[in-house]
Amino acid sequence: MERGGKVSAGKLLKSIFLDLLFPEYCVACGSFLILDHRYIACNECWESYFREFKDKKCLICGYPLRLKPGLETVCRECLESGRTFYFDGVNYFGVYSELIELSIKALKFEKRLPVGWEIGRTIENHLRSYIREIDAEIVVPVPLHPEELKERGFNQCEEILKGAGISFFSLVEKVYNTEKQSSLPANRRRENIKGIFRVTGNVKSKRVLIFDDVFTTGSTANEIARELKGKGASKVFVYTVARSI
Q: What total of structural domains would you count in the chain?
């Protein structure tokens, strides 16, 4: 059901009818979802489990420092490997588990667009705060290859941004359709996406924010950042809904 304002009697009856005709249950507590809910979860569970991660994050890869303690601001893996990225910073709303994971999967694989808009509304304030913090001028969603877009029917990153009310520019395209990153081990992901993105707009001297749904190894964001820097972007940052752990 729509929230954030008055609902007409007609829309109210329609919402009740749809909820009764196509019954859904909260993925967290199992309660019947009717009227005011978050499409896959009741309000109470959504607010309890779709949580912002507030602990310290590695300045290089964003990994929760309490899980891989290294130095005060850098995780053990980044410290030991000495790895670097083309992007200048990374941030995310929450950890990829529980309700956050279920919500992203419902959007991407069950094609439930309202869940994506709900995700966007939930992360809006956090994302806007980060945009102000880094003084980003352009928000660029990670693109899908045309074949992927045809199969899915939408770009999940764009739908989440729409839900958040964030303006974005599709200035990067995916030129080649490779194996899905999620199907590959970490050591193959960087090579799998090398050279598959192309910048199609003017980013010269711009501060750009790449938006994605999940940050795992950072390979996708890093390759896009490399292309953006190659086209003259002054700074490139990354923001995702969730960080895989």
A: 2
